[in-house]
Specification:
By secondary structure, this protein is an alpha+beta fold. It contains five helices and six strands.
């Protein structure tokens, strides 16, 4: 075999594997279910340690890496049903559960309110991914703690 033949052979042998490299890299840009659950746990621990006022201010105005990572971010509904913290879109603050409906008409805010528990639950809906700017399928881990609903969602590829 000549060097040119070997070079062509190597390209043909490796090319199929390169096709799978791009999707793998893209999936690294997305949070996992375990990371979402962990972020909610860390947010609740921070809330308990620092108190509601300091924690909610931190989640809203200074989202440190522990509460904002790639497409993962914390949001919190207060006891009265109003959104009191949102890690990427402060314009949503002050909205109620019932005001959140996805592009298919699903009232996911009400579902979050009705199904969140101390043990946590997943709620599925469609929402704009701040990392891509596209409406995507999303699943959010919701936990009820101290009459607040803490949530972090993952965007599904």
């Amino acid at each position: 075999m000549t060097k040119k033949t070997i070079h062509h052979f190597l390209i043909l042998a490796v090319a199929p594997f390169l096709a799978f490299a791009a999707p793998a890299a893209a999936s690294d840009d997305r949070g996992t279910p375990e990371e979402a659950q962990d972020m909610v746990s860390r947010a609740i621990a921070y809330y308990d340690e620092m108190g509601p006022e300091a924690a909610l201010a931190k989640f809203n105005t200074d989202p440190a890496p522990e509460f904002l990572d790639r497409d993962l971010y914390i949001f919190v509904y207060g006891p009265d049903g109003w959104l009191v913290a949102h890690g990427v879109d402060p314009a949503l603050l002050g909205r109620t559960y019932s005001s959140f409906t996805d592009v298919d008409g699903k009232q996911f805010g009400l579902e979050m309110q009705q199904t969140a528990s101390v043990g946590g639950t997943w709620v599925d809906y469609k929402w704009m991914n701040p990392a891509t700017g596209e409406v995507e399928q999303k699943s959010t881990w919701m936990v009820l703690h101290d009459d607040h609903h803490f949530g972090v969602g993952i965007y599904k590829p």
